Amino acid sequence: LGGNITLSKFRLDSQEMIVAKKLIGDLAEKLGRLQAYQQLRLELNTSQKDKNKHYELHGIVTFDGGRATAKEAGMNPFVLINEVMRRITQEVEHKVKKEGREKQK
């Protein structure tokens, strides 16, 4: 992962971390093609409920036009990564388009 991507509290086993980093890297690259960003920070909190692990993922990206955030909870960290990154990308895309329209005025 690049120096502008920070993962916090990712307590996954080594195989899961490989998959998570690959997924995050691919999605961050897609985001970077849409808008250059200064920092992408993802924090994965883990809790145990009965015999199941539950995860909560917080994501924030900062870029020249501001920042975008997303939060999701569930039992599959890969689904959460995908959903948080999708929502962040949509928010960045919306802000970039809005900023473009404002500059045209």
Describe this structure in words.
This protein is α+β, with helices and mostly antiparallel strands and 105 residues long. It has two helices and four strands, in the order βαβββα. It starts with a strand and ends with a helix. The longest helix is centred in the last third of the chain and has 28 residues, at 77-104. α1 runs parallel beside α2. The mean pLDDT is 92. The chain is 47% helix and 36% strand. The protein has helices spanning 14-34, 77-104, and strands at 5-8, 37-49, 52-63, 66-74. The chain is elongated.
What's this entry about, in short?
The protein has helices at 14-34, 77-104, and strands spanning 5-8, 37-49, 52-63, 66-74.
Overview features:
2 helices, 105 residues, elongated, alpha+beta, 47% helix, four-stranded mixed sheet
The overall average pLDDT, rounded, is 92
* Contiguous runs where pLDDT drops below 50 for at least 5 residues: none
Q: Which structural class should the secondary elements be placed in?
A: alpha+beta
Number of alpha- plus pi-helical segments: 2
How many E-type strands?
Answer: 4
Outline type: elongated
Amount of helix: 40-55%
Cα Rg: 15 Å
N- and C-termini, Cα separation? 38 Å
> Roughly what fraction of the amino acids lie in strands?
35-45%
User: Largest sheet, described in full?
Assistant: 4 strands, mixed
Helix/strand order, N-terminal first: EHEEEH
| Strand line-up in the sheet with most strands | 1-2-3-4
